[in-house]
């Protein structure tokens, strides 16, 4: 057996061993996640009930001490997520603000060119992901 065949066999052996361990952990994690699903569902149901009680009684803030910390309710406002739909709408609105009937089509075309430029020139990143597919 040549050294390249030995190296290839060693690599295959290592891969088989690592994949077997990966599958073992994946199975264990899936089992635990299946057990957590009903617990999370019940927890979320109770959380909605608590939030409903607080909102219906006009309680904007709350802090309840627990033996290991506390439960806190705070309200905050966050801006809407920026996505393609929002960017398209915002840029189109911006370019159409000052548009009169004479140059409306030109402004619309300018907005579309800017949107296309933004979409076409986004940075891309390559990411390697190991996934398990079930048959």
Report on the structure:
This protein is mainly α and 135 residues long. It folds into two domains: 3-73; 84-120, no CATH class. Helices cover 62% and strands 7% of the residues. The protein has helices at residues 3-56, 84-96, 104-120, and strands spanning 62-66, 69-73. Strand 1 (62-66) and strand 2 form a beta hairpin. Helix 2 packs antiparallel against helix 3. It is flat, with a radius of gyration of 28 Å.
Alpha-carbon distance between the termini?
A: 36 Å
Uncertain stretches of 5 or more adjacent residues: none
Rg calc: 28 Å
Name the helicity range: 55-70%
From the spread of the alpha carbons, the general shape counts as flat
- How many helices? 3
Q: How many domain modules?
A: 2
Mean pLDDT: 88
Give a count of the beta strands, DSSP E runs of length 2 or more.
2
Overall structural class, as computed from helix and strand content, comes to mainly alpha
Strand fraction band?
5-15%
| SSE arrangement, N to C | HEEHH
Q: What is the makeup of the main sheet?
A: 2 strands, antiparallel
Order the strands across the largest sheet as they lie in space. 1-2
What tags apply to this protein structure?
135 residues; mainly alpha; 3 helices
Helix and strand arrangement:
Layout (H helix, E strand, L loop, with lengths): L2 H54 L5 E5 L2 E5 L10 H13 L7 H17 L15
Helix pairs in contact: 2-3
